[in-house]
Amino acid sequence: MSATFGYLAALLATNLRAAFSNPLQAVSQLALMVLNNLIFLLIWVLYFERFPELRGWGRADVAMLYGVTAFGFGLMVALAGGMRDLARTIVDGSLDVHLGRPRHPLPSLLMSRSVPAGFGDVASAFVIWLWFAERSVSDLPLLVLLSLAAGAVMTATMTAAQCVVFWWPGVLRLAEQFWEVILMITIYPQHVFGPAIRLVLFTVLPVAFMSQVPVEAIREGDPLKMLAVFAAAIVYGGTAIAIFDRGLRRYQSGNQMVVNR
Amino acid sequence: MSEVAIVVENLAKSFRTRSAGGLKGLFARSATTEVAAVRGISFQIRPGERVAFIGPNGAGKSTTLKMLTGILTPSSGHAEVAGFVPWIERQKLAQRIGILFGQRSQLWYRLPVRDSLRLIARIYGLDRDRAEARLSKLASTLAIGDLVERPVAQLSLGQRLRCEIAAALMHAPPILLLDEPTIGLDVSAKASLRDHLIELSTEEGTTILLTSHDTGDIERICERALVIDKGLLLLDRPLAALRAQHLRHRLVTLMTEEERPALDLPGVAVAAHEPHRTSFAVDLDLIQVERVVATALERFSVKDLAIENPPLDDVIRDIYRRGEAIVRQEVAA
Q1: What sections of chain A are H helices per DSSP?
Q2: pLDDT tens digit sequence for B172-209
Q3: Which residue among A32, A52, A201, B185 is least packed, with the fewest CB closer than 10 Å?
Q4: Is residue A254 part of a domain?
Q5: Residue A96 in contact with residue B104, Cβ under 8 Å?
Q6: Is the Cβ of A4 closer than 8 Å to some Cβ of chain B?
Q7: Is B105 in contact with A258 (Cβ distance < 8 A)?
Q8: Chain B residues within an 8 Å CB radius of A21
């Protein structure tokens, strides 16, 4: 177990060195992401200046939700940026390299790359929570914990969705764009939807556990909802691994020429 | 290691490809076509053997190698590599084999090669001291000592490939599976790599199975050849036997006092000529090469002579050309 963690830490360190090998480019990506998030939040600020609430939610709630998504998604792409290329890696045969190693291929696949802009998302989450969501510093540990679980659900969902190319390689582009759809839903409050859509968001596309439920858990101080987020991380994480392993049996391996970047 | 490093029995692999577009192509099973890439091949490789896996593009070489590494699951048949069934015990097997796919990279593009090699050592569970010792040995043998500090992005293809080979060898595997290991290398790098592979095989008893389109690799490194085409194993022979059986001619070159010597013997024809130097193609089915040489020495004033095997390229071309007939002949035998 410790050997596995040691290897993952070494993999992460290598990816971070690669991501920051051009520090100016990496830091500018990071800074632009912070700016991008703050500008997006300003639109909500303007909205709430005109309308005091959105079905019971105020500016602070929406900001907290945005912060949870930014932290979860940001950490995911910063540490496991290979997730965004997963479908293509499967289709073009780059999975071969990972399968040739004495490890389960999924961690090394997901952690095959680090996206510096993700650290911008993580940094902006703290600004958003403390400034726009008006949370105190003492709230941060719980926010971070729940956001980590939310990020795990996000990673699991996107992993499972991209594994569809094991069965249908022709839907590569769709699979690649799936994460954008997911991200789009997570940054908006989902309690405004009707029961049918909410059912989908709590099951097939578990977007609710990526932002809405963590925020409700903190707003309401509900330990059951907190547990639900952690349980979702475990259940969807396990499901994603099972789907990936099942898909591996159908892996056909391509022959496109690719290098690590 | 057991008496056999690699055992392959009736190994077959088919791929399902979609032949129809649109929604029908996506979901209907009838819209798919089965393509047989490997059609029931069998062979064994002993520890320390160096074997070439030869075949034209699309013959099934890479697919077979991928099944032997556990990357692909076969449609039917059985295989064991280092005592492991690859597609069932892939992770255990990975500790015992080194893999190089010429078109795949294990190295981080923006980082110095040394960083990638250290990480790869970690992946295989090598401690720091062993990793550094191995890196140092590989750096010396593959002549990459001055390359390991440079980012991969700054290396030429040949330099990168030498570093990729170092990556595949970091954990000192007893079995090496190499797919086009010298592709893109310059002449001296090729020679150096071939020497290293032979040295590995001799010193450490490393078994080598390689595919290559470069007959120099095959001739220099390997002692045995498996010839595959259209998913079928056409031949499994020592290289010397392959030549002897599949090319029934030799080239006899004479350097003589006479400007244009002529040999009117059955099965002997002039292959090339320049003043005082003539090459004769000798058909071994019609005449023995010794008789040709004896006749030449008797009739001409010979200053020098050379008896050459035809290039391996010709042997392989001959096998591909006669592919189906060879299989029928083998089955009948």
Answers
A1: 2-19, 23-50, 59-79, 86-92, 95-99, 105-110, 117-127, 140-162, 164-167, 172-186, 195-202, 212-220, 223-248
A2: 899 999 988 877 777 777 787 788 788 877 877 889 99
A3: A52
A4: no
A5: yes
A6: no
A7: yes
A8: 110-111, 151
Contact A260 B107 (CB under 8 A): yes
* Beta sheet of B32-45, edge-to-edge order: B32-45, B6-18, B76-81
A179 CA to chain B: closest CA distance, Å?
Answer: 21
Token pair belonging to A167: 């069965």
Name residue, tokens 């009838």.
B30
Q: Taking CB atoms and an 8 Å limit, are A99 and B62 in contact across chains?
A: no
Average pLDDT over residues B10-27: 72
Give the pair of three-digit tokens for residue A208. Answer: 């609710």
- Domain shared by B161 and B284, yes or no: no
pLDDT at B246: 66
Q: Does residue B1 lie within any of the structural domains?
A: no
Sign of the Cα pseudo-torsion (B109, B114, B117, B123, in order) = negative
**Residue B149: both structure tokens together:** 């500090």
A200 to chain B, minimum CA–CA distance in Å? 23
ipTM for the assembly: 0.81
CA distance linking residue B199 with residue A112, whole number of Å: 33
Domain hosting residue B269, numbered range: 248-308
Strand pairing partners for B101? B179
Total number of domains in chain B? 2
Backbone angles phi, psi at A16, to 5 degrees: -65, -40
pLDDT digits (tens, 9 = 90+) for B216-237: 788 888 999 998 888 999 889 8
Q: Is residue B323 part of a domain?
A: no
| Total-model pTM | 0.80
Single-letter amino acid, residue A191: H
Q: Please name the residues in contact with A33: beta carbons below 8 A apart, sequence gap of 6 or more.
A: A74, A117, A118, A119, A120, A121, A124
Q: Do B104 and A252 touch (CB under 8 A)?
A: no
Give how far B162 is from chain A: nearest CA, Å.
15
Residue B331 lies in a domain: no
